[in-house]
Amino acid sequence: MTGRVRTAGVAALAVAALAIGFAVGLRLILRHQPKPLVDATRKLFGRVFNPIVLCISDRFGADWEILHHVGRRTGREYRTPLCAAPTSEGYIIPAAFGPKADWLANLRAIPQTKLTYGRTTFPVVAEVIDRQEAMRLAGGSPGCPCWDEFRVQEFAILRPNTT
């Protein structure tokens, strides 16, 4: 085995170990919700990972759910990749990073927004709901395992905007 091949193999293993370590760390942070770590992780996602996901989505047409929302203070348009569980009334989005997530605060202030789901973007009206209402709308069981695992308490229901 040449030195370059060996170096590339070690680098690949190091990247894989970092990715696994990050995934485990993120899972622990979201499960136990230590406030300083949740705040730091939320900022990291907003500044680093969300732009990467949006770039991949734009460039390769990946099927991620993307919430389009307007900043409550800036009036600027933002796009945030999130998971959305479809229901008969619309789509439920869990606030896995807690009630202080910027996208959730923006929806509270300006509920008229858009959602990209399955490569289609359509207008929706958002309402912030609690866990009990989210479970009811999802048919009595979590729309995603993360609802229980991360003890999500606040959600947004995005209903189609027909006006």
Choose one word for the global shape.
Answer: globular
Q: How many helical stretches?
A: 5
Query: Which class in CATH terms?
Result: Mainly Beta
If you consult CATH, what is the topology? Pnp Oxidase, Chain A
How many angstroms does the end-to-end distance come to?
65 Å
Largest sheet: 7 strands, antiparallel
CATH architecture: Roll
> In percent, how much strand structure appears in the residues?
25-35%
- Order of strands in the sheet with the most strands? 2-1-5-6-7-4-3
- Quickly count the domains: 1
Write down the Rg: 18 Å
Structural class of the secondary structure composition?
alpha+beta
Low-confidence stretches: none
Task: Please write the string of helix (H) and strand (E) elements.
Answer: HHEEEEHEEHHE
Mean pLDDT: 80
Share in helix? 40-55%
Count the strands? Answer: 7
Write the CATH homologous superfamily: Electron Transport, Fmn-binding Protein, Chain A
Written description of the protein model:
The protein has a seven-stranded antiparallel β-sheet with strand order 2-1-5-6-7-4-3. It has a single domain (33-160), classed as Electron Transport, Fmn-binding Protein, Chain A (Pnp Oxidase, Chain A, Roll), CATH 2.30.110.10. It contains five helices and seven strands, in the order ααββββαββααβ. By secondary structure, the chain is of the alpha+beta class. The protein is globular. It has helices spanning 3-32, 35-60, 102-109, 131-137, 146-149, and strands spanning 65-70, 77-82, 85-86, 91-94, 112-117, 120-130, 154-160. The longest helix is centred in the N-terminal third of the chain and has 30 residues, at 3-32.
